[in-house]
Amino acid sequence: MTSVTREPCDPVTGESVASVTDSPADSAGDPGVEPAAGPTEERLVDALANGADDPAPTSASPVEDGPEAGVPAPRRARVAFMPSGRRGTFDIGTPVLAAARALGVDLDSVCGGRGLCGRCQVRLPAGEFPKLGLVARAEHAGERTRVEARYARIHGDFVDARRLGCQTRVEGDLVVDVPPESQVHRQVIRKEVGHEVLTLNPAVRLYVVDVREPDMHEPSGDLRRLREALAREHGLSDLGCGLGVLGSLQKTLRSGNWRVTVAVHEGREILAVRPGYHERVLGLAVDVGSTTIAAHLCDLATGAVLASGGAMNPQIRFGEDLMSRVSHVMMNPGGDIELTGAVRGAIDALLGEVCLEAGTEREDVLEMVLVANPVMHHLLLGIDPVELGGAPFALATDEALATGATELGVDAHPATRAYLLPCVAGHVGADTAGVMLAERPDLSEAMTLLVDVGTNAEIVLGNRDRLLACSSPTGPAFEGAQIAAGQRAAPGAIERVRIDPETLEPRFSVIGREGWSDSAAFAADAAGVGVTGICGSGIIEVVAEMFLAGIIDADGVVHGEHAARSPRIVVDGRTFSYVLYGDGSNNGVTVRVTQNDVRQIQLAKAALYAGVRLLMDRLGVERVERIRLAGAFGSHIDVKYAMVLGLIPDCALDSVSSAGNAAGTGARTALLDHEARRTIERIVRGVEKIETAVEPDFQRHFVDAMAFPHRVDAFPELGRVVALPARPASADPAASAEARRGRRARRGARRG
Ligand code: FES
After folding, report:
1. 548-560, pLDDT tens digit by residue?
2. Topology of 282-423 in CATH?
3. From the CB of 534, is ligand 1 less than 6 Å away?
4. What are phi and psi of 435, to 5 degrees?
């Protein structure tokens, strides 16, 4: 059905918009859907091979009752859409967008066919398509219309080969290519972030409508007529509408001259109404870590990250690690309110920062998705985290949470929604849910280990059959804390270390300074950053290199006899240290690795390994096939050294890699694709939670894991690429087993 629509002035351009156009919603064109006759054209074959559906039947039929006698049959033409492969037969004059809708083809439209949004762009290849049984000619789509010419004038990127689907009419047989950027549900590839692929299917979508003006003879409320327009033009029905929107609706409708852009959440609720045509809808993905908070401002229409920002978590002033913050709350009445205010303030400031950077308004941000560890999650929500400080580590809620952003103290549009991914368990948070959503171990055939190392290591192990999760108290050693010369990863920190096994002389690299310490570039850069300490990745490497060079043994003891070989082994009270930088005196900066440093690393890595081992026991597996290390620590450590120390179990090194900021990626995934929220809620419900604190085997695994790389477990894959020192008798599994048998026999004899 063709209709004549009222075309008020375009509020964007001030021009009059097309005077007569088909509203695609009501001019679906009576498609005759062609049977999916043998997929013949090459791309059609591909499309179908890739899972494209057969053309969906529609309510219209090719030739319904047939023409009445004497009435000429309407002329019809065949239209095939690519890459979906859907095709049908339509009346001449049907807009391409209407044909796409009738066939269920995924072709976007915000402006409802007014030639404003440009989301419906298509390509119309001309030529013979024998396998589709049609010949498409340029004239079958007519000339570019006045509306398209106007769109091209305003938008320089509207290339000649493109047409607006809403303005282009079927004048003969056509093949219509729908490019990825014109599809509502599509994948976006972020090349700048390791070719990350995200699906675009946001919860908030914009719809332009022309609302009927009030009529004395047919009285009805403005909201009713707005809803009618949304149903008529976009097929949206039963939409909820809050008081916030209703309060300003009348002014908005009139200032937009009855044309408005409506933001609708999950097809169910009107979030915001703006006068005229408005094309910006943004979302914020936030990863609330104990140390840092990172935020990404995303365009929900394109998936593009418009701006990113990060800030130190201001809660650090209440305690470096999570448990000290929980202690602060326990010891100080009202402490939870202070901590909540601090984290909310930081998120609010970050929102302001990224909006400024992107040149946009807070008002345009209508969605937020947040991930956080359990303590941060509770504090952000204003929930006292004390229960998480002790067994049984009960969460206030382990479900996903949807609330208003203003409820979280964020100065945003009153209707902005906030979604928090679900926590997995008392020590395994929504950040781990984010990692799982980014990594999807539930789809993997390979036995996959995900580790997010922080002051607590959050661990997930499994595959598509079963997933287990736990956390292990690694402490802050991996972040450089509790290490004599430890510091955060900042300019001046030693981050890479090599030790010559013959001379025991080290060379190293420093954050912010060129080259290795024995290179000319390093010396030339002497005026730049000085050496100030050693960060997490540096401490991992230096301890691993000390082990490989024989300075420490498998039990982690710094052997004093090496002092005769190298002045770098120095007495330090009753133990020995290794001087990595400086002269070992207290003059100037000296970076020395003490016996206590090695112990701290042993304790941290043993906790991590024991957690992994518990999950392996539960799953009944002896090896993992793939390891992904999430978080900043995982991004910076050399996986080979992590394995030399025994942080992670043996695995082919090329199957061990960094997952980057996977928790943040998970937040962005859920921001851009609201279906992903249901997915992660389902995955988290199915995860089996293991509480390491009550597992009797944890202690045994922990003790065995204190050795480098492990007292019992073999590392054959690592052994292929690294010459590991021979195990001493105390660490030899066979000798240990023999000793255990001996002890058991002696105990038995005594009892007897
Ligand atoms: S649907 Fe908006 S320009 Fe075609």
Report:
1. 999 999 999 998 8
2. Nucleotidyltransferase; domain 5 (3.30.420)
3. no
4. -60, -45
